[in-house]
């Protein structure tokens, strides 16, 4: 049985680090294991301009633990007022790696997102020309569409037309949760990829709703039925380079999750890699973990694979992590996979 895996340091291609006291508390949880992360711009107010992204990057670097090599790859929050020239300039200056599309109202702090996709056509065309990837939260917000169908409907109504209208635009369909999402990505060869979270490989909607409501499993897109979870696992372990890790680790104070109207987000930064190794072992695919966590993402983004390494170790006793971490905004509960995990990260460097 494999007991050690030495991998290039992985990257997290979708991460929420927040700001202020929360950033100060959670940054080290990602910087410990990951070398780089695509940083989500859904702050309040959102990170809209190149100058705001540069300032946010400085705040992240200031929160980074001493001596830890962790590079935040910044994104801009696409609005109907986004200036194409600012996006292209921020990318050319190395400040911004990608642009994030939130359909207005789809999720946490997405009120400034896009309602009329025709109004962002100019930005998307400029991005296609400059090779700037678009990271997409793939859910429609139409109240008439059932929440469990919102990803599949988004692909048909928004994503496919948008990609056809903007040839050459590189797109990451983020945190895919459905078989339809997996199939759509598999059916298109160029310029399209998808990230998968760890939690969507582990939970289905029963985990959220059966036998009592579990707010710490609530995220968006919401976990779907079991058949979809199995499709996601198959994609993750397939070795197909279009699929890579984006944890969507999204901390909220417990008081905001355990509420009458609780926030969406699972906080997986502390244990994402341990759980991921468990999943890949269960799927008899540990040899494919390196591709999924360390190689496919850099290949899509045109970046080198990290030079440092990380060691994952399989122990005889279950891994331990704190049930919650303390932050200046109150405690934040760490994602509980609901089973024992025997893998853990030994060292990163
Ligand atoms: O569950 C989620 N939480 N999904 C998102 O898209 C946003 C995120 C957050 O910012 O909390
Ligand atoms: Zn997210």
Unreliable segments of 5+ consecutive residues: none
CATH hierarchy class name: Alpha Beta
How does the major sheet shape up? 8 strands, parallel
Report the end-to-end length measured between terminal Cα atoms: 25 Å
What is Rg?
19 Å
- For this structure, the CATH topology is TIM Barrel
Structural class: alpha/beta
Cofactors, ions and other ligands in the entry: (4S)-2,6-dioxohexahydropyrimidine-4-carboxylic acid, zinc ion
Structural domain tally: 1
Global mean pLDDT: 96
Give structural notes.
This protein has 349 residues and is of the alpha/beta class. It has one domain (4-348): Alpha-Beta Barrel (TIM Barrel). The protein is 34% helix and 16% strand. It has helices at residues 20-31, 50-63, 84-92, 121-130, 150-165, 179-186, 199-202, 205-209, 226-236, 254-257, 272-282, 289-301; strands spanning 4-8, 11-15, 36-39, 71-77, 96-101, 134-136, 171-173, 192-196, 243-245, 309-314, 324-325, 332-333, 343-348. The strands form 3 sheets. An 8-stranded parallel beta sheet has the order 2-3-4-5-6-7-8-9, sandwiched between helices. A 3-stranded antiparallel beta sheet has the order 1-10-13, covered by helices on one side. It has a two-stranded antiparallel ribbon with strand order 11-12. Strand 11 and strand 12 (332-333) form a beta hairpin. Helix 3 packs parallel to helix 4. The two termini are 25 Å apart. 48% of the residues are buried. (4S)-2,6-dioxohexahydropyrimidine-4-carboxylic acid is lined by residues 16, 42, 107-108, 137, 219-220, 250, 264-265.
């Amino acid at each position: 049985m494999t007991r050690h895996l030495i991998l290039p340091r992985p990257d997290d291609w979708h991460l929420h680090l927040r700001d202020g006291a929360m950033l100060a508390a959670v940054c080290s949880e990602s910087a410990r294991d990951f070398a780089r992360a695509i940083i989500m711009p859904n702050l309040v107010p959102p990170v809209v301009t190149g100058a705001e992204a540069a300032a946010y990057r400085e705040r992240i670097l200031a929160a980074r633990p001493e001596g830890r090599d962790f590079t935040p790859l910044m994104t801009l929050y696409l609005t109907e007022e986004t200036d194409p020239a600012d996006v292209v300039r921020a990318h050319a200056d190395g400040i911004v790696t990608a642009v994030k599309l939130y359909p207005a109202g789809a999720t946490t702090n997405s009120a400034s997102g896009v309602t009329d996709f025709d109004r962002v056509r100019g930005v998307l065309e400029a991005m296609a020309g400059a090779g700037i990837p678009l990271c997409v939260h793939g859910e429609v917000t139409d109240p008439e569409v059932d929440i469990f169908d919102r990803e599949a409907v988004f692909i048909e109504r928004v994503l496919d037309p948008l990609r056809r209208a903007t040839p050459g635009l590189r797109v990451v369909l983020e945190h895919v949760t459905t078989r339809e999402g997996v199939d759509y990505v598999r059916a298109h060869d160029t310029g399209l990829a998808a990230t998968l979270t760890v939690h969507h490989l582990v939970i289905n909607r029963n985990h959220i709703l059966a036998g009592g409501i579990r707010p710490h499993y609530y995220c968006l897109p919401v976990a779907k039925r079991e058949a979809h979870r199995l499709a996601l696992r198959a994609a993750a372990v397939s070795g197909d380079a279009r699929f890579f890790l984006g944890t969507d680790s999204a901390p909220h104070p417990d008081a905001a999750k355990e509420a009458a109207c609780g926030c969406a987000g699972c906080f997986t930064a502390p244990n994402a890699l341990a759980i991921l190794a468990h999943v890949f072992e269960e799927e008899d695919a540990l040899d494919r973990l390196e591709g999924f966590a360390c190689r496919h993402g850099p290949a899509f983004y045109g970046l080198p694979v990290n030079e440092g390494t990380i060691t994952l170790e399989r122990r005889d006793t279950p891994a331990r992590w704190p049930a919650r971490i303390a932050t200046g905004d109150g405690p934040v509960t760490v994602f509980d996979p609901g089973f024992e995990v025997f893998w853990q990260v030994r060292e990163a460097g």
